Amino acid sequence: MPVKLRITLLFCLIVFVILATVCATAYYFSYTARTNNIKTRLTNRAITIARLLKQPQVFDRNLIRKIDSSTSNNLKDQTFQAYDYRNNKIYSYSDAPTDTLAIDTSILDDARVKGTIFFKIGNKEVVAYHYTNATTRIVVITAAYDKDGKANIRTLSNILWFSFLAGIIIAFVGGYFFSDRLLQPIKQIADDINEISARNFARRISTNSTVRDEWHYLSETLNQLLNRLQDSFETQRRFVSNASHELSTPLTAISSQLEVSLQKNREAQQYRVVMESVYQDVRHLSKLTQTLLEFAQASGDAGGLNILPVRMDEILMGLPAEMKKSNPDYLVILSFNDMPAEEQKLIVFGNAELLSTAIKNIVANACKYSDDHKAIIKLQAEEETITISITDKGTGIPEPELKYIFQPFYRVNNTAHQSGFGLGLSLAYRIIKLHKGNITVASTPGQGTEFEITVPTAKF
Prior knowledge:
Blueprint: H1 3-53, H2 61-70, E1 76-83, E2 89-94, H3 105-114, E3 116-121, E4 124-132, E5 137-145, H4 147-194, H5 214-261, H6 268-298, E6 308-311, H7 312-317, H8 319-326, E7 331-335, E8 347-350, H9 352-368, E9 374-381, E10 385-392, H10 424-434, E11 438-444, E12 448-456
Parallel strand pairs: 7-9
Antiparallel strand pairs: 1-2, 1-5, 3-4, 4-5, 6-8, 9-10, 10-12, 11-12
Helix pairs in contact: 1-4, 5-6, 6-10, 9-10
């Protein structure tokens, strides 16, 4: 079912419930008011007849009948009857001479107990009233057909039905028009999105800056999503291009060296030189491939990782030996000040290997690009976070390039002479983000750089 029709039907249902409630309430109170009115009028008439009947010396029955016949009260087919305490009929009057009421004795007994009862006989409404004094005990029956009252109720019922049906029709037409106007911005957004493609990805959804409603918020949100997608596609394109270049360079070198060595017969020493060169290129290619695999793993989500409680101080304490193993000139100094007494404050939920890789990449850069090849690591544990700062006194990073250093294959201009792929910081950034942490960097060219890693502590 189209959304436009669903909104229209829902709107009609709401209007249906409201109109039905209003009409039913109006009819109920009008009907109750008419019933109470006829009951009051018949009761008053019964009281009047009873008071007249208790004075037989002043008002005989014929005179009372004349009074009843001459009284105008807009009631039709009136019938009045009175019974003594032995259930004998002592008075009777009817607008139509042949009209009479058959009253059961149980009704008379019920009236004597309750005082006044109201019931119906045919189309007439009847009141049985028990009147007593020191000398009189009678039950007066007054009955009549409320022609005007029921006619008014029928007229009101017709008006309410007409209003109800007209309201439903108007609600359907108005709801259909309203839903069409309501969904028009959605259709416009869909049309704009349909025009966006890989060749026209810079296109954005048009927004009305003067109206800040939900449709404007939706358009802005979709535009922000498209911006993020465009940035992701651009990053992916650059990554594929750079990765292809980095992979093709050692492959080309290997192919060229093998091709040259096979052009003619050579001495064993010459073959050995070629094989050593090829071996270096293969090691370079293997290291690049391993880094790319780690990068792909860190680019996923935490659901595919082996997540366990990890002590960050234990990861950091293994770094000095690892850095020394990779390069004897590298020196890592650990500074664990104000260590917390609670072990839980040093534990995070994560993958130990990935976290170690992330921190090791930053520490390796700090040692590599410092003249003294030294990196200082500080650990600080707080209530909900663990902060690790890595400081060096190297060449530093120029301010304009700080925003690019976490992009894959990006290398700062003043480090181009050093070996590397430009994936270390990008890999570290993705790993820390995967662990719901954050990395910030502050650098002064010629003085050094400080990286600060913040990760949330484990909640037990």
